[in-house]
């Protein structure tokens, strides 16, 4: 399985958090939200973000998927019904969320912060776009030395957040006005386009350019995504619901569970025209 840089860093941050007692990192006197500057531990009533993963590598690219994922994080509701990142929170944790957003250096960072803050229900809690933009610009000048978006991911994962389906995240981001509907739709169709383009490139014969394959047939024309609408012809079975007449079958299982024995028995039954495990040919 291949992971993106953002997914890898999120998993790394979670692992560091789980094993930080063994690693015993030296405290950073300048980190916000650790209690080091005030001499007090963070209050349980005002949760603040840990900077364990602050400053690691570069921010993820400003793509529709990453924007939608970060918006999903900010709106995550825990099992107890409380929001993990509540815009009605006190000033310190509110500022820390804006600091993490600023660390992305995304053009839409102030817009995300504004949309999130505008969800506050307490009177006069929403400071307005100008104040949020000023905060974002101030934190942007500090670079990635403090809290970053990875801090938000780390805390959300620790709280039980699991990445929703891409379609769901995109729909929420569109509803919030963070991305345009046509951009979200393009993000989903890009999955197929990327596969088609990659396959066409892979099939270019030696000595020929990809331009000569423009009119080549779409080798993925008969493939469908699992969630794609439309009728799909049922396969013709050599052994119903077990082995198709044409195509590829998968026999999977843990080691030592008898896969090889089952495969040999299945092959013997097929060649001799005998039933296999009460399945007829």
Describe the structure.
The structure is a single chain. This protein has 281 residues and is an all-alpha fold. The chain folds into 2 domains: 5-181, no CATH class; 237-272, no CATH class. Helices cover 42% and strands 2% of the residues. It is elongated, with a radius of gyration of 26 Å. The protein is built from 10 helices and 2 strands, in the order H-H-H-H-H-H-H-H-H-E-E-H. It starts with a helix and ends in a 9-residue tail after the last helix. Mean pLDDT is 74; it is low at 24-56 and 210-214.
- What is the arithmetic mean of pLDDT? 74
Large-scale geometry: elongated
The biggest sheet amounts to: 2 strands, antiparallel
Major sheet: arrangement of strands: 1-2
Helical region count? 10
Write a brief structural summary.
This protein is mostly helical and 281 residues long.
What is this structure's SSE topology?
Blueprint: H1 5-18, H2 20-23, H3 64-74, H4 91-102, H5 109-117, H6 129-140, H7 149-158, H8 166-175, H9 181-202, E1 237-239, E2 243-244, H10 259-272
Antiparallel strand pairs: 1-2
Helix pairs in contact: 1-7, 3-8, 4-5, 4-6, 5-6
Question: Which key phrases capture this entry?
Answer:
elongated; 2 domains; mainly alpha; single chain; 10 helices; two-stranded antiparallel ribbon; 281 residues; 2 strands
